[in-house]
Amino acid sequence: MYPQRLGAIMPQRVSLNVTDARSGEAFIASLLGKMVKFWKREKQENRRLVFVGKRDGAPWQHGFDLEDLLRASAEALGKGSLGTSYKTMLEEMTVVVVKRLRNVAASREEFTACVEVVGGVEHLNLAPVRGYVYSKDECLLVGDYFPAGSLSDRLHGSRGTDDRTPMDWEARICAALCAARGVAHLHTVPGLAHGNVKSSNLLLRTDIDAAALTDYCLNQLFAPAPASPGGYRAPELMDARRPTFKSDVYSLGVLFLELLTGKFPDGNDAFDLPRWVMSVMKEEWVLEALDAELLRRLAGNAEEGMLKLLLLAIKCVAPVPGARPDADDVVKGVEEIVEEQGSTATEKSQGTHGASEEEEQSKGTTL
């Protein structure tokens, strides 16, 4: 491919009198000058920030490159399985998150094709990808900044301290519904598995009904790696780059169990949360598996809703993939629980399944 591009600056036919040294030197100097200019332009284009998707219904138009992003003041937000995320600011005081990817194995064409698909996804419960940089030195993704943090932060942060405000049942069931709707939309449009469903990848807005999944459909970009045991991973998933719809549903089930129990399933010891829940249910009263913070704040028929979500979660984490429900059925199951609870979440969430970016902006997303 590179020689073919270089050929674009080569003359189609060259007539050079070898006896004219000055003419030959001039030609070579001219050719080298064109090659240097081409290489510089190619390098600049390779390091340029390419914007995908839309903002307020129109394509983004910015002129930033890698150096602009790296020079911008940045605040490290955290390190995940795909890379490290930084909060930074572009022009017009636009705050974004730049994810610095590591171990990318995809070619430029593969990377671009994948991110273009992901960038075209528009749904309230899926965090949009705004742009990317692909170069020899760096691979970056640019997305929205969510000041409220992640579900993991909200659910587990400051546990055991006096200044902690526990996450109530309504907020937890809303988070479950947002995650299920996001996954169901991906399975339908564009028909891809998320591959990385977990509480740290469910980002929160001020309105809990607008929580959005991030880091979706990107597994194929990275070097082959065995899927880590336990955590959110389905037992049949041997290669983390090849998630399936059913492995996504398993991860949703683990997320539901995390919401119900308050236990973090993705620690260094790869805590097997489904196995723990099943053992508690066999040996003790079912409610012993639920988060004590939830049980201390029961209201109305919340206990019934918790038990129904627990049963749905157990179906999702069935060892045999074929025994798990489809994502659409999971959405229906959670919606029924919300409706039976008489929660305002139903009214707030009407029409968000398949919501457009314009609707998302009206919710007050911080970008």
Automatic annotation (TrEMBL):
Q: Where is the composition biased (Polar residues)?
A: 341-353
Region entry Disordered: which residue ranges? 335-367
Matches recorded under PROSITE patterns: PROTEIN_KINASE_DOM
Residues annotated as domain Protein kinase = 71-338
InterPro entries on file: At_inactive_RLKs, Kinase-like_dom_sf, Prot_kinase_dom
Q: What terms describe the molecular function in GO for this protein?
A: ATP binding; protein kinase activity
Pfam families given for it?
Pkinase
**Alphabetical list of SUPFAM superfamilies matching this protein:** Protein kinase-like (PK-like)
**Would you tell me the protein name for this molecule?**
Protein kinase domain-containing protein
Q: Which organism is it from?
A: Eragrostis curvula (weeping love grass)
